[in-house]
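Below is the data:
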Amino acid sequence: MCFELELEDAPQGRPLRVECTRLAMMLQVMDALGMIEHLSPPREPHPEDHGTTAARVTEFLAADSAEAPPELEQFADAVSALFDGQADDPAGIPCYKLSHGGWLVTPDEIASALGWWTSATPEAQAYAREGLPWWVEWLAVLAKARDHGGIRVW
């Protein structure tokens, strides 16, 4: 198992694949440096909250119809807002956004995480760079993502 990261507004290319072993090490180091924010995921929208049903959503998706009824558009907008949203003042990358697919890690969340990295002690930075040979590449990916609309985690 692995996850894939795609830069939001960069030209389409191959996504960066992160294997589970690397992901676990990456998250551990990011957490130790304060780059991860421990938040619970927000409540997911329910179709019923938007005047439709899960069965209706499934029917619409299976039909591959071009035009959605207003209640399905409202539900889709709520889902997009959830997966693309961020806290008002992010203090890092929310851990839930790195746990399963579809979440957008926003430029502000990435900037906050990178701020924690730059404020880390030289010893902590050296430990990360020396212990994880790909760490500098990961920081470059984060910096690029910050400038290109964020990262979509799949």
